[in-house]
Amino acid sequence: MNVQQTIQTINEQANGKISEVYLVACGGSLVDMYPSKYFLDSEAKKLVAGMYTANEFVHALPKRLGAHSVVIVCSHGGNTPESVAAAKSAKEKGAYTIGLTHNSEASLLNYSDYSFLYEWGDESDVKNNPMAIILELTVELLQITEGYAHYPAFQNGLGAINGIINRAKVQVEPRAQVFADRYRNEELFYILTSGASYGHAYGFAICSLMEMQWLHAASIHSGEFFHGPFEVTDKETPFILMINEGRTRALDERAQTFLNQYAEKVEVIDAKELGIGTIADEVVEFFNPVLFYSIVCVYREALANVRNHPLETRRYMGKVAY
Ligand SMILES: O=P(O)(O)OC[C@H]1O[C@](O)(CO)[C@@H](O)[C@@H]1O
């Protein structure tokens, strides 16, 4: 079943009474849900969205969860115990569960009423990757429950984003190499952005830099930067600023103006400069994170290579009990 058929079927089963959507996962899979949470918070008048790290969902189940809820659980490997447990808990409460995974043998599938076995890797079209599928699911849920005025524009964006990304990846390749050479000995990075992309600042910090490079990192919302964090700004501290196209661009540009004056180690990744502006104004902001994820992957690959620290290296995950 495709995205549209899945949502249509759930809507029929629930007699058109879906009132909330929960987005539940861990780590990188959770990060991929942030654009959908932002989208529903921004665009829905009635449909409520909740986003949970899976173990919190399991231990602190929301009281609203029930027969009018759709719970989307994503797990790349499909066997992360807390994500599987979250899907199980959701089913026990009578919710409709949608599981996304890259593993056809995933335990998650045992508790998924509907499932998507998604594509992964450099060769795949990003619209078949989990971030875009989850966004499409939430757009479809909004459209079917209360209507979404920019539905056609969103579908056009979905058709265009992969081409934009492929061109942008070529564009940033040399910059990523310069970045990696310049910052190869740094031990800490701050990642700034806003809007639908904030989850990917968090994701680049916790997954790409901390998990995959064992570097210290923190995400800072561009809007929050001026409410505490900017006090650490100096010429020695590296910042990576992802500038969105769309409504929150002003927040990112404000951070850029400040950093241009008081910092020296600033890497800017600007979605507009990378060509996202061909997507309609009404929906472009929701596609920034899809672009940024692919672009920061080029940066992390370059950094991993110069640091001689392969992205797969772990010291605890899968090696010790936790
Ligand atoms: O998406 P999965 O397979 O549930 O994995 C979650 C795990 O994957 C990562 O996101 C990336 O390895 C980890 O942070 C996390 O523990």
Automatic annotation (TrEMBL):
Keyword DNA repair assigned: no
EC number: 3.5.-.-
GO annotation terms (biological process): fructose 6-phosphate metabolic process; protein N-linked glycosylation; UDP-N-acetylglucosamine metabolic process
Domain (SIS): residue spans on this chain: 9-148
Keyword vocabulary terms for this entry: Carbohydrate metabolism, Hydrolase, Isomerase
An example Gene Ontology molecular-function term: carbohydrate derivative binding
Keyword match Signal: no
InterPro entries: FrlB_SIS, Fructosamine_deglycase_FrlB, GlmS/FrlB_SIS, SIS_dom, SIS_dom_sf
Record's function text: Catalyzes the conversion of a range of fructosamine 6-phosphates to glucose 6-phosphate and a free amino acid.
Subunit description: Homooctamer.
Protein name in UniProt: Fructosamine deglycase
